Amino acid sequence: MTNSQMKDIMSKIQMGALSRRGVLAGGAATAAMTSAPGAIAQAATSAPTASAQPAPTMPVSFEVNGKREELTLDTRTTLLDALREHLHLTGTKKGCDHGQCGACTVMVNGVRINSCLSLAVQHQGDKVTTIEGLGTPDKLHPMQAAFVKHDGYQCGYCTPGQICSAVAVLDEIKRGVPSHVQADVSARPQVTNMELRERMSGNICRCGAYSNIAEAMEEVAGVRA
After folding, report:
1. What 3-state class would DSSP assign to 132?
2. N or C: which end of the chain has fewer CB within 10 A?
3. What is the chain's alpha carbon radius of gyration, rounded to the nearest angstrom?
């Protein structure tokens, strides 16, 4: 605080124009202002500077829908973003991006995964199948055709993940992979409505087409009359 500022405050106190509380508030404000430049300078000096180095990248090679793909990616890139942003396979959807909705489900080496939770560089040499690799508009996969027949979708946003998951579920049952609803996990699982619902529980449909999805799966499995 300068001498002139101090004299001004003393003059106001003598004239009764400034209360004790005003003096304290003014002093605190002045102290903060006078210390601020030093604090700002210190913070600027101690703050880490942004790195000029580019993000680390890594080459990755995998097979997507039967085609070998070679990419060089930021090591933080998820498989989902590699498919959508780099290979332009936008059938696989980004829903929650937290592995909770299943919209991003794809199959890797025949096993379904949430592609938003998996880094692309983890899949060196793997075989990835997305909804585009299951069938085409002219030649639908049996599961795709069954979804159409049984109206297993409404808005369609979750449908690619639902279909990929449904195909993988029937393969899981065929391979004898147990589930939480089996009374005896050592027994061979059967294609029942309860079994399908349990295994598909990680794929969320906000439109509520669950019954139709189960019917489509039952038809493909050959257990629906």
Report:
1. helix
2. C
3. 31
Residue type, 117: L
- Phi, psi torsion values for 63, nearest 5 degrees: -100, 125
Q: How far apart are CA 137 and CA 162, in angstroms?
A: 17
Please state, in angstroms and rounded to a whole number, the distance separating the CA atoms of residues 95 and 191: 28
Angle at 110 between CA 86 and CA 58, to 5 degrees: 35
- Judge if pTM exceeds 0.70: yes
Contact 187, 200 (CB under 8 A): no
Q: What is the pLDDT of residues 99-156, one digit of tens each?
A: 999 999 999 999 999 999 999 999 999 999 999 999 999 999 999 999 999 999 999 9
* pLDDT of res. 110: 96
